[in-house]
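Hi P.,

Sorry for the delay on this. The queue was packed all week, but I finally got your sequence through. Input first:
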Amino acid sequence: MMKTKGLLLLVALLAWMQGAFADDDVFVYEDDNNTVIKELAWGANPESLTIPASVTRVKTGAFLYATNLGELIIDGGNPVFESGVFDEDVPLEILNLGSGMSTANILRLIKTIGKDNQLLQIDIDGFTGEFDSDDWDETAMGDYLSSKVIVSLPAELVDDQVFGYAQVYGHFSLKHDLVTFCGKQNFEDVDNSNMLFYVPTHLENGSVYIKRVFNIYANQGILIHPADGMSDDAYLPRNIDLEGNYESNMLVGVTEPTTIDETEGDKTNFVLYEGKFYPTSGGTLGANRAYLQVPTSEVENLSNLTIIYEEEEDGIIQLRRQETATQRAGWYTLGGQRISQPQQAGIYVHNGRLETVK
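Then the structure:
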């Protein structure tokens, strides 16, 4: 019995020495509120570390002895990493930066890892903040991130001044069957992704016909549809050398929140909602979206425009979502997010109808 207990104690000790710690035990904090990480617990040398959302600062030398560290996860917080947090030979390959880090603190983290790093992947897919490219120095980032590094972040945040020479992938997460998009960068559909791209080209009998295109060009409006039976998430690589225009594109794309009027000259403006285009009464369209412009003379007395896919002219594609507007009572944003009441001016959907709140 004593031998068994002794063996169990030895196994536990070895596991502890190898860094098999619970997240709450692996850090030594400088304060009682667990907001400042001073160092790792004695003997801790994990292969992966998760920084709790409560942490606001990681001190110099905190991970100096983390010689096995291959992955660092930021769990929703926005910690400041001081200089010299890591050993210069840290084998860190993967950064998962969650949703809460500011661009300034992301930059500090990458710089404290050092120029001779082993980074291969940086995930910022869940980023929900304001991505400020003014925080970045493209030349400096080229010193820290080589062309072997793959960076993924929301497609609408991809900018050509960010992440130096790294391979940047835009993350498209489609929550609806058909959405409009307009980005600041070109994206190339090199792997024939699970998304289909379209542009509206002409009107006929109260319907707008959309034509399939390939690739996404900067500052141009486009419609995106997830392929049937496929995931609603896709990653497309940024391609700064890609050039092109969509012929006869009736969409007007915006990369910043933009006020649109009911009409512009001899044209009427329409916005997309649940698979159809509806005339707008004016308001603010969110960033990285697009609206449809059509000659007013062709849409008089029309309450909406049905969409017809040109490669299926024998009928209208049945979208996977079968909800009707009457089933969506209440207030929604144009992105489909339910809200209790509008808190700012803009275009909303109320009880299945577009309404402008001023």
